[in-house]
Amino acid sequence: MIWVILAVFSVAFGCITPILLKGEQFKLVRGAIRVVSVIVALALIVATSFVIIDADKVGHMKRIFGGKSMKPGQIIALTGEMGPQAEILPPGFQFRLLLNVLYDVEDVAVVDVPVGMYGFITARDGASLRKWQYLAEAWPKDKFKNMLDATYFLTHGGQKGPQLTVLPPGKYRLNKYLFQVKNQKSTDIRAGFVGVVKSNIQETPKLELAEVSHELAGSLAVPLVKKGSMGIWNEAYPPGRYRLNRTAYNVTEVDTRVQTWTYMGGYDRRYIDLKVTQEGKIVQKERSEKIIVPEKAADSAIFTRMEGWLVPQELRIQVQVEPKDAPFLVASVGSLSAAEDKVVTPSIRSVVRNICAAEKVLSLIDENRPMVEQRIETAVVPEGRKAGITIKDVRLVDSVVPPELLVARLREQLAGQLEETFKKEKDAQDQRIRTEKARATANQQPELVESEIRVEIAKKNKQASQLQGEGEKLKLMEIATGQKAQVDVLGEDRVMQLAALEKILRAAVENPDIVKVPRVLVSGSGNGLEGAAAILGDSNLVKGLLTEKTPAPQTPKTKE
């Protein structure tokens, strides 16, 4: 403004001064003053006619002079109107006659939308929203750049209020008098999930319901709509990043990975322990343990009534939400956890109780267990499909059978194991004895060999003695035969005398000391040994022979 005042003052000075300086002598002075005044005035005018906009700024103008008034309710002025202008100035040198006089120019930073965000736009001016609208209609993709031009926006039907069209990441030179931008986080759908969209706006002219899959027909009745209609879209978004206007669309993430739900704990478990004493007797002792529900379990164990017994049954099932069923799940129950609590768990409890009630208790732990599992799975799968859940597998985890039903079987098994153990121990002892015997035999091998040799020697000596005895026997038999012949010829007494003499002579040969020279003459009648006595002397041998053959004299008995 000051530049305008100076320009006017300069022009006035150039006009007034020549009038005051009259006369021929001031002619050149007057001319110079006029030239200088014009130059100064032009310079001042030029100084008010340009601006320089920085590279990261946008020039915004408000017209303050020389324009017509805007219409009532209008906020952004178009060409020739007073007020905030729809036109903006790009970066660089901008020249316009009396720009700084007619307009108040303001530098405003560009709009920056970071990566992972989107710009939510609100227009302060434009056509009013329709009655059923709370967001302005989306601009066609080929018209997106035109929409960002405030003049085009206001002259081509742009609506006032929050916009359905959003700004992707980047920098934008927008007219901030018209557009207010707020950065919001983009929608990230993680791997293993899908995004089910609930639209709060109607993009298409007419609401069109999507046909429900035939697999879910006859189950929970829910309305699904085609993409672009108001309601839950029948097509889910796969994993990725989307610039969905969260004011217009609510996105529910649904986990499509395989889930494992367990039904465990919530009961007192009883045990009957068996123990074998040192004497081999089996004794039993009862105890109990409280089983709590694990933190991540879907629910507690399912209590089933079987043959009068209350049997807690632990269960594990694998479920999955297929991407095509995710919209149906959200529309019917809201979420996977809600489906678990409201549909699947009550159905599973009912099915397990009904099937187990017709079975025997021990069928849960014997060879019939797979058949029970298959029957439960067959009955549960359709129940899950009612809510858009696919049940992949059902497994009985732990059947808490009353310990009284297992004692007899356990005692029988333990007795059989004890019998087998005793048998193996006996076999081990026998083997140990055989081993020790073999080891002792090996250690005594030299003595055994020597003993065997002695046995062989004894056998040989026995045979030699036997043969020697047989020879002596034959010899004696021959001698006896000869003596018998001598007795028959010489008589028994003479034969005996000859035999005795032979012995005496043999003894004398073997022991010469017993032979003595006779000192006395011995004669007389006797049994014929007087000569031998004379040769041998008074020896014990002769005395013995004489004593043996000569009877002692008997004293005659006298009569009293």
How far apart are the termini? 212 Å
Mean pLDDT: 80
CATH architecture identity of the largest domain: 2-Layer Sandwich
What count of domains describes the coordinates? 4
Total helical segments? 13
Q: Give a count of the beta strands, DSSP E runs of length 2 or more.
A: 23
Low-pLDDT ranges: 207-215, 545-550, 552-560
Sheet of most strands: 4 strands, antiparallel
Radius of gyration: 69 Å
CATH superfamily of the largest domain, by name, is Band 7 domain
> Strand share of the residues?
15-25%
Give an overview in words:
Helix 1 runs antiparallel to helix 2 and helix 10 crosses helix 11. Helix content is 40%, strand content 24%. A hairpin with a 5-residue loop joins strand 19 and strand 20. It is built from 13 helices and 23 strands. It is elongated, with a radius of gyration of 69 Å. It has 4 domains: 108 residues, no CATH class; 143 residues, no CATH class; 151 residues, Band 7 domain (Tetrahydropterin Synthase, Chain A, 2-Layer Sandwich), CATH 3.30.479.30; 59 residues, no CATH class. Strands 18, 21, 22 and 23 form a 4-stranded antiparallel sheet that branches. It has a 3-stranded antiparallel sheet with strand order 3-2-5. A 3-stranded antiparallel sheet has the order 8-7-10, with no helix packed on it. The protein has 560 residues and is α+β, with helices and mostly antiparallel strands.
